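Limitations

Structures in this collection are predictions, not experimental determinations, and the ligand pose is part of the prediction. Treat each record accordingly. The example that follows, with adenosine-5'-triphosphate as the small molecule, is included so readers can see exactly what is and is not provided: the inputs are given verbatim, and the output is the predicted complex.
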Amino acid sequence: MQNKINILFIINPISGGKQKGQVPTIIDRYLDKERFSPNFLFSEHVGHAKEMAEEAVNKNFDVIVAAGGDGTINEVASVLARHNKILGILPLGSGNGLASHLKISKNIKDAIEIINKFKIVQIDSATLNGKFFFNLAGMGFDAHLSALFSNSKKRGFNGYFQIGIKQVFTYKPQLYELIIDGVKYTRKAFAISIANSSQYGNNVFISPLASVTDGLLDVCIIKPFPLLKLPVLSYVMLRAKAEESSMIEIIKGKSIIIKRESEGPVHIDGEPLLLGDTIEVNINPLSLKIILP
Ligand SMILES: Nc1ncnc2c1ncn2[C@@H]1O[C@H](COP(=O)(O)OP(=O)(O)OP(=O)(O)O)[C@@H](O)[C@H]1O
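Predicted complex:
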């Protein structure tokens, strides 16, 4: 008989605002144990999933499953991309942007079935000032919101929505200078998202035609807009119509430099970070092995 594959599940107990105590039991029930030998660890703080993933790759784990949202995936995948190991996803986050783009079911039993089938594909990753991201990074309103969200006790889609709706009334657009594959653009923007995948999560699309295997990033510039047009912007994103809308400009590229008015927050896969006024983003084509449907 072939050796079993050592697979580690790193579970974020707080992602998505749902209890995860039963998750190991459920995985144990549905995972193909002829093929896999499972282990389970819960993250205890920000950065812990990354530390555990580092330890695991040094201990012969070839597959690590991030059981959480985009932040958990980011911590685990940042390690796996460097070590050429395989990522699995159980989407148990609030937005689940990357998992939604990749059509990984949010039903845990179905998501485990995807792992059982063990189809491995390579996708692009990107770095922002040297830090990996896999779904979306951004600045402007997005980053402002994710900084507030991470300091609040609210989680889940409703949490995001409640904070977002208050902030949209007071946020002021910023001026940016962008150099995308050597071409210069000056734009005032409400937000700039740099998209590897198509969506923030919860089927809110910023770049509906984005591909995680095209070797390109989509720089999505949300132009300043009067508040009266907020429902239109919401419609555009929920109906995946950014390409047809005059409210969003999308420029594709591999190498992006953005100079902004001042230092401030950015977000990397939804997790906020304070950075200086110059941001550099690059794509790493087909650099992450991942289990996909
Ligand atoms: N035990 C813990 N206590 C507090 N924070 C944790 C713990 N374990 C992990 N974290 C942090 O929780 C944050 C949020 O995780 P994650 O992004 O997976 O969930 P989410 O925000 O609910 O989902 P999504 O990003 O898909 O919207 C990450 O920054 C992660 O580092």
